[in-house]
Write the structure tokens for this entry.
Amino acid sequence: MSDVFISYSRKDKDFVKRLHTALEQCDRDTWVDWEDIPPTADWWEEIQVGIEGADTFLFVISPDSVNSPVCRQEVDRAVKHNKRLVPIVHRMAEDKAIHPALVKHNWIFFAEDEDFDLNFQKLLKALDTDLDHVRSHTRLLVRATEWDKKGQDDSFLLRGRDLEEAEHWLIDGGEKEPLPTQLQREYVNSSRKAETARQQAEIRRQRIALGAVTSVSIAATVLAVVAFFQYQNATKRELIALSKTSEALFASNQEFEALIAGLEAGTKMQRSPWAKGDPEVRAQVMTALQQAVAWVKEGNRLEKNSGIIWDVAWSPDGKTIVTACQDKTAKLWSPDGTWLKTLEGHGNSVRKVAWSPDGKILATASWDKTVKLWNQDGALLKTLEEHTASVRGLAWSPDGEILATSGGTGDNTIKLWNRDGVRLKTFVAHTAEVWRVAWSPDGQTLASASEDKTVKLWKADGTPIKTLTGHTQGVWSVAWSPDGQLLATGSGDSTVKLWKADGTEVATFTGHSKGVRSVAWSPDGKTIASAGDDATIKLWKPDGSLVDTITGHTQQIYGVSFSPDGRTLATASGDGTVKLWPLDDKKPIAILRGHKDLVRSVAWSPDGQTLVSTSADRSLKFWKSDGSLLRTLTGHTDEVWNAAWSPDGLTLASVSWDKTLKLWQSDGTGIATIDAKSEEIWDVAWSPDGQMLATANDDNTVKIWTWSGARAFTLEGHTKTVYSVAWSPDGEIIASGSGDSTIKLWKRDRTLIKTLPAHNEGVRVLAWSPDGQILASGGFDNTVKLWKYDGTLLKTITGHNDAVWDMAWSPDGQILATASLDKTVKLWRRDGSPIRTLKGHSEGVLGVSFSPDGKVLALADKNGTIVLYDWQQLKDLDNLLSRGCDWVRDYLLTNANLDPSDRRLCKGIGTRL
């Protein structure tokens, strides 16, 4: 293995030699093909090995290298294995010639007139960023590749500490660049399965040994005890291993598989009373199970070794699902996942499927240039054979009397057929293949989407109406809203566009990182689903706001389809599966979206009826306890950092980096704006009697205000920014936490009581327990500290891997929740012992708040989302198992790929919710 692989054009050899020498002098091992390939070696094989074994792929940009087929091939290889890319510019080249994977990275310039030494230091810094993560990526890739080349021989799998480190790498660094590859994930998951199988065999051996000891002799008794403890240890290792497998799968966006592994761990722990009482085992199992139950979105999957699934469609009555398969068939399924029938007869892949509106005829389109019509029982009625290329589009008119079909490259036509399969009309529609066709709900307009970057509207008789332009690459999908007022299109340019029925462009939705293959409207017209080459599904409101992003497929998604009742979304993918996603699930979390930037804080009103959130988008939002948006408050001109309710719940105070403190009525009406005449304000807190306010300020002070907004006095003494301020419940002490790493305790009369040298880095947040006996602090040093009322340190709590950003006590004061930039929330008992870790956030968690009844945790994150956790449903093992088993029950009953033992996973657990 090497530190750097250098890809370059031979015309830049002199520069590369200088670069190579400089890297070698700094102890960076470089791989350059002028000296590393033996004369007799297979050239490309050596290049591949060099790329795979290097921590960083360095590309020297010049007009010659960007136009070199070999260099481009090398970049493709690096991208395939998710290698870290570092582009450096030696000679400028045309942007359009540069590989897209290099364009999105920051470039380091080494032009002849640039300071080589200065830029070389920038290069070293880039190479050393997240070096441990990058090296782990390389080591794991080399071993995974060897395993794959050896036919996935089990003898090449990871074991013991190597496996644990690889799983931790997937969990903790799963979103760092370079990202894990699918091969790496498969390698680690296969290693864990093999390790678990070995551990289960050990447990069976221990059980046999334990059962064989029947003598009443002392020696036999000792052996029995030893055997029992060995059995316990083996079981413990197995439960922790299963939990770590679940976490690794979850980190790899395989939430459904994570739930299965979590349920296996949970059911085994439930059957082992001693394991339930082991704090380490219980915490590990409950964390894995909780996150999987809370965040899983996939409800079931349809899979039958069919290769790529190109399309999926629900029958009008919702009782049958049809899939279009690469294996030249269409397959019929029941919604619970039971395979019903395979329709055979096409000579090539089936690309598109469509039910007639009455559900009596199924049309299938194929690369074999034909369309076949089948009755609802799967009997072939007729074959339509007039297209001269693959048939790409398929759509029935709303009355079911006309079938529109469209042709691929070289055909470029639309054909109209009657219900009996008689061709009515053919017209040349586009200058390139016609990907999709769709009828308006009134049947008066046909829309067609083409690789020629346009959408065309036609009268029912084929007369052209209008051409819609705006997409910059081929248009791959088109769908009408149920009311016929809007048209959604998906394109290879990675966007979804919305158009009025007259062809006027309304909006462009951005968010996909690759081309959009399919779009679909929910039956009520309130949601648009889009999916494509980035293997994600996105749900949008018609106004363009993103509702959700769903992951789980491992390859491109070619088709999306809502069930007729709108309760389930089906998606067809190149990974060989159709996944079913329940959209009305009653899970123990609700996700609130509406802010346009990261959410800074959340706070429940004293009556628990309203949640307020503050955001970097300069707004505050009021939400009902059920998660519905009440109103949006605007007025701040910079990020809103925090908000606090008065004890009586009648007034809300908010603070912002615009240097103001604002007061609002509980209905959102503004009361007053106070100019703090200082630097940015980070935090605000009410006195328990509601008569005064304290603010934490960037000018190193705490300012005290009357409830009406008049300044009362200023507390000075900190030497850096004050990030947090908190009144003790009795109102006698004000605690302040600062970037100077100290906590100061002040009397209400401004007297400084004590300065606590609290953390190794700045103090980010403070929170008093409801009884006022404990002050909790969270720091940029990743620790939590608990202090007595008088400032005596009780305990230092470690466990977070990044700054502790917010914290909250449960109303009964028995649980402390801490939110961190490490993307987790941790729950601790009052004595500082761990209870559980809540995972699932894709970004750091910035805010946490318990509802007044203690049942719901509100969490805010950097991703702009707010998550409401029904805490009561998440803390009980039996409830988690019941919910998890109900979620996967159809899968366990119907999936053909499961072993009989897998089907018994949830036997006797759960009832349909």
